[in-house]
Design a protein that fits this description.
By secondary structure, this protein is mostly beta strands. Helices cover 10% and strands 56% of the residues. The chain is built from 3 helices and 16 strands. The chain has a 16-stranded mixed beta sheet that branches. The longest helix has 13 residues. 34% of the residues are buried.
Length: 248
């Protein structure tokens, strides 16, 4: 049976923005990380208001065959959801990485410690940039907030891999979906973020909060606890049973 392909809508950004809050803020949440519908980890995102903006923390854990991943990220955002300071600690298959990043004049300064070596990288700065580690729903939630205030344009990702890099983000708006949150039906907005050539499907709720992200890693999804996309998408759905496959 062919899988239906979602097509972009012809709605303008102005119409889409009326469906979203006038003041967009990233929001806290608890998430399940799944591969092909099977839970393999979890993530927790918290936000706290400060006199100058927000403090946010992401804690991510993935444990599966071939991948043991733990992330702790603390980040300071200003009132426009722009990052001011980031500190990250992670282990990937028992290899530790520590990173500190902050704007420095007209650049972003990254200090990275990994494998007993330290490096310093300077990257081009952008006013609407997210700090994007793997499997981090907090970064994607901040992206949704920035997308509203920047009309889906001029968005960037700071990718903390190897020496670090910056990649542009292109957002495409698709038709609204439907889902349930804690058993109650909600309208779900659907965007596709293409980052460094790889697409990530983003599904957000009525308050612009991240509900689900289908990640570029094969079959992985990050899903807010209590949320169900109806019908489920390819990445978040479990693989068909042998009997069902035979019937098709």
């Amino acid at each position: 049976m062919p899988i239906p392909v979602r097509q972009p809508t012809l709605l303008t950004l102005a119409i889409v923005s009326t469906l979203l809050p006038s003041v967009a803020r990233a929001q806290p949440g608890n998430f399940i990380i799944a591969q092909h519908g099977h839970p393999v980890g979890s993530a927790t995102v918290t936000f706290a208001s400060t006199p100058n903006g927000y403090d946010t923390t992401s804690v991510v854990r993935v444990a599966m065959q071939g991948l043991s991943y733990a992330l702790s990220k603390t980040e300071q955002l200003n009132q426009a959801n722009q990052f001011v300071h980031v500190q990250l600690s992670a282990t990937v298959n028992n290899a530790a990485v520590n990173l500190i990043a902050a704007p420095d004049a007209a650049q972003i300064l990254l200090n990275i410690s990994a494998g007993g070596h330290s490096t310093t990288t300077r990257l081009a700065t952008h006013s609407a940039a997210i700090f994007l580690p793997d499997f981090d729903p907090g970064a994607l939630d901040t992206l949704l907030a920035l997308a509203v205030t920047h009309n889906n344009r001029d968005l960037w990702a700071i990718i903390p891999k190897q020496a670090g890099s910056v990649a542009s983000i292109q957002l495409a708006t698709y038709a609204d979906e439907r889902g349930t949150l804690d058993g109650k039906p909600i309208v779900v907005h659907h965007l596709v973020a293409t980052i460094a050539g790889a697409p990530t499907d983003l599904f957000s709720g009525p308050e612009n909060q991240l509900m689900q992200a289908e990640l570029p890693q094969q079959g992985f999804a990050v899903v807010r606890k209590g949320f169900v996309l109806t019908p489920p998408t390819k990445a978040g759905a479990p693989p068909p049973s042998p009997s069902r496959s035979a019937a098709q």
